[in-house]
Amino acid sequence: MAAVSDPVSALHRIFGFPAFRGVQEQVVARVLAGQRTLAVMPTGAGKSLCYQLPSAMLEGTCVVVSPLIALMHDQLRAAQAVGLRAATLTSVDENRAETRGRFLDGDLDLLYVAPERASTGDFRDLLDRGRIALFAIDEAHCVSEWGHDFRPDYRLLRPLLDRFPDVPRLALTATADEHTRADVLEQLGIPHDGMIVAGFDRPNIRYTITPRDNTPRQIADLIARTPGPGIVYVQSRAGTEKMAESLARTGRPVRVYHAGLDASVRAANQAAFVESEDMVICATIAFGMGIDKPDVRFVAHAGLPKSIEAYYQETGRAGRDGDPAVAHLFWGAEDFARARQRIAEVEPARQPGERARLTALGALVETAGCRRAILLRHFGEQPPETCGNCDNCLNPPAAVDATQVAQKYLSA
Ligand code: ADP
Ligand code: MG
Q1: Phi and psi at residue 282, in whole multiples of 5°?
Q2: Residue 34 Cα to chain centre, angstroms
Q3: Which of 214, 321, 364, 371 has a Cα at 20 to 30 A from 73?
Q4: 400, pLDDT greater than 70
Q5: Which residues are CB-contacts of 2 (< 8 A; sequence separation ≥ 6)?
Q6: Distance CA 364, CA 374 (A)
Q7: Distance, CA 219 to ligand 1 centroid (Å)?
Q8: Residue 3 Cα to ligand 1 middle (Å)
Q9: Phi/psi of residue 257, each to 5°?
Q10: What's the confidence (pLDDT) of residue 384?
Q11: Do 4 and 47 contact (CB within 8 A), yes or no?
Q12: Residues near ligand 2 ion, CB 5 Å cutoff
């Protein structure tokens, strides 16, 4: 990449974007100043740019740690598409020797690796012999046992990072409650004042949370009053099929998506949804990652999501175009019972985190106050008391009997 002097011209010249979004500028400035940073930014906020841009401006290679090979290859293509010199070093890459050579020659802006490789002696020796501009640790919540996606390999990164104490480090995540954040800072050796949190509010999404009586009928009603494409999240594969059958009666085109389908069927259904202007897709949470469809008008949950983070991420697929969109969650007391049962089966060390996540969800579901306020506070933002665009703000409940049901299952 040609040397570029300042971040804004680099942004124009490399990415062709007119301006930074939100906290990107602040994060990039810290990275260029060599300051260790944790960037907490919602999905779609543009985290990748926070290290891609510096990678083009700094001498040496930005080493990016990323947890999934599939994501890494998406990122690789995106980086190469804007002309960055990028490579992945994973078990499925056949050109590993070439990539090592390019790194040593200073011919790479970005080198993507999985955490298990990053912690090997081989990789450490490679880094010793080349020039590292920056460590970027994507999905950094994976380092925390409090996080919803703990990956033990992330714990092995610290010795590698500490071997290069002068190389700046940038940790990135969309999903961090207060506890997880503190843990990420601690685990990765980032100072507390090095954390930057972006705005999580999605004002065009109307949040509604309703006890379940007959979910297919309730969701059919939702569909009837909500034109445009939508996603219905169902907890089991069989459940998605059943839901699709019921919803076919609404007259809207309906498709199914879950990991049990043939890859070709999955791909076809996803492609049909992305192109459609009125399709409803009944899916497990396997659906959505990396899908770029701006005009999703509703996201319905036919049961409790895994965590507030998951709820935020899944509902966040609605209304990316900024037009009004609806997030409607239907829940039952048995969801909490099942979740508690599941928690009892996980490793004891992880149980407190899981319980805290369930309690946080319980608070969201049972509140008679503003849903958005609970979401935003969860992500560390100070919300106004009322948002004017959730069920409780629009129709303040007189008395919430569901409260007691959820409470019972949370405290039993
Ligand atoms: P995240 O990792 O935070 O979910 P990505 O890095 O994948 O987000 O970016 C999401 C999308 O936003 C990408 O298509 C990216 O090109 C785009 N994007 C990032 N920064 C900007 C910007 N400053 N202006 C316009 N689009 C941007
Ligand atoms: Mg990302």
Answers
A1: -95, 120
A2: 26
A3: 321
A4: no
A5: none
A6: 6
A7: 32
A8: 22
A9: -145, 120
A10: 83
A11: no
A12: 47
Instruction: Find where tokens 């089991």 sit.
Output: 236
CA of 334 to the centre of ligand 2 (A): 34
Return the residue whose CA atom lies nearest to atom 19 of ligand 1.
46
Check residue 399 and give its pLDDT: 59
Indicate which residue's Cα is closest to atom 5 of ligand 1: 46
Ligand 1 atom nearest to 138, measured from its CA: 2
HSE value, Cβ hemisphere, 13 Å, CA-based, for 43: 18
Residues 6+ apart with CB under 8 A from 374: 308, 363, 364, 367
Q: What is the mean pLDDT of the chain?
A: 92
* E-assigned strand segments in 201-260: 205-211, 230-233, 254-257
- Give the pair of three-digit tokens for residue 36: 């260790």
Is 205:376 a contact under the CB 8 Å cutoff?
Answer: no
Instruction: Quote the percentage of the chain above a pLDDT of 90.
Output: 79
Q: How far is CA 378 from CA 248, 311, 386, 406, 410, in A?
A: 37, 12, 15, 19, 18
In order of 51, 242, 248, 303, the CA distances from 328 in angstroms are 35, 19, 19, 10
Three-state DSSP state, 265: helix
Instruction: Look at residue 412 in the predicted model and tell me its pLDDT.
Output: 45
Scored b (16 or more CB within 10 A) or e, 56-79 reads bbbebbbbbbbbeeeebbebbeeb
| Atom number of ligand 1 nearest to Cα 11 | 23
